[in-house]
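Hi Y.,

Following your request, here is the sequence exactly as I used it, all 331 residues.
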Amino acid sequence: MWLLHPDWHGFRLADTIFSSFLFIAGVSMAFSAAKRAADPSAERSAFARRMLLLIALGFAVNLVKYGIPLRVFGVLQRIALASLIAWPFRRRGPWLPLTVGLGFITVHTLVLQFAGAPGIPAGYLDGIHNISGWIDTHLVGLAHTYKGQGFDPEGALSTLTASSMVLLGLSVGQWLRRYPKDPRMLRRLAGLALASFVCGLALSIAIPINKKLGTGSFTLIMWGIDIAVLAALYWLADVRGHTRWLRPIVPLGLNALGIYVGFNILLGIVMHITITTPGGTDISLFRAIGAAAERIIGDPTAATLSVSALEVLAWLAVATALDRRRIYFKL
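Below is the corresponding structure, written out as tokens. Let me know if you'd prefer a different format.
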């Protein structure tokens, strides 16, 4: 099912979403830094407030979805930490954050390949009992990792490669600012996208493509995909002026944080509601919806696609209604 994450190694469409959020966070940082350059003190205060609120929202989402003991790591916490790491490079030119991002990928790869721990051989990447999970467990405690597994897909070590996504976005954003609507710049971005994608595929021979570990091969492939998609959209919308087809989905971007938090809180509630099947088995409402969709449609992949499409349409309707009332949830 290409809409679901792989069990461990591999690459599917669902794996692109969060990394692309990190990339866009970096692109946005390049533009916001230019707007706030006149008042560094206000910029620092606003950035610190946003990061603290992101972390607090992340803990709130984790509390609803996973309960107690509280999961420490999470999506919003990762965005905050990766943005914090990238923030000092916001005005240092495009090449420095790009270089630092490559350095983070290199360090992450070396740790995965050559660092071991008691009971964990160096280079073992075929399950959750790896060096990344060992670090998470000793840093926050077993009970505070993802579902108490002793490994967290948003854990400490993979913050290196997550930060590289923000740094890449920062670099690309700076290039777009410096050379607006320049065909030569777009060609360079296309070349960088191709090089990143090819290097990621080459590295996958030694380091498997794994989103949960945030491996270097996965990260470089995502570099290539995100650069290529953004360059194509920039060329269509900003250079050629073809924006009409994008307008219906603009409200989702304007309220991305509010929609994300609302979706996850609703998901957490649905996961905790238990119903009894006609056979007398207690299951979560979340699983019941999935099972019902599969029975109606017949094919598991088509059922997953249908439920996901309905979710997107529902939240697009919510975002559109909020946009019409000029209600935006921003930090």
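The mean pLDDT is 89.

Thanks again,
Q.
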